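User: Some background: our group keeps a shared notebook of sequences we're curious about, and every so often someone picks one and asks for a predicted structure to add to the entry. Today it's my turn. The entry only has the sequence so far, pasted here. Could you supply the structure so I can complete it?
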Amino acid sequence: MFKLSEIKELIKLVDQTSVQELEIENEGARLSIKKPGVAEAVNLQPGPQAFIPAPQVMHQHIQPTAAVSQPAPASGESSAQDAETSGLHTITSPMVGTFYRAPSPEAPPFVSPGDQVNEKTTVCIIEAMKLMNELEAEIKGEIVKVIAENGQLVEFGQPLFLVRPE
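Assistant: Of course. Here's the predicted structure to add to the notebook entry:
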């Protein structure tokens, strides 16, 4: 059976994202979470297994998707911001998850503004379903801005970094 803390974490994750429904099956136990209005809110069907051990944390490298253009600034914002970001590459989140700037809380960030990166430089970790996914820059250049906050829940396609390409 799923642990209550795991179920609460999954409900929170679904609630804070655009995901409408999540279904997980593990060793005969099935958990289905649906946002209200879709159908039922939570449906837990126990299987023959009484305890499901917490998943091991695994690392995998992921490649960012193509850059997403920045939204148009609200009226009243100066065109100086446009000039500042023109020609910059945007590294976006390839998935929904939690954004981490460093490999551990006591470690320094992978990258900071002013750092030089290449195609294989790890820039952050996106945690999704207890998997730690290392995101690579996929471009050679200089980190200009870190957009996302450490520990923040990020959406698919959300801008994370601005890079000035070489």
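Suggested note for the entry: The longest strand covers residues 122-128. Confidence is low (pLDDT under 50) at residues 38-44, 47-59, 65-71.
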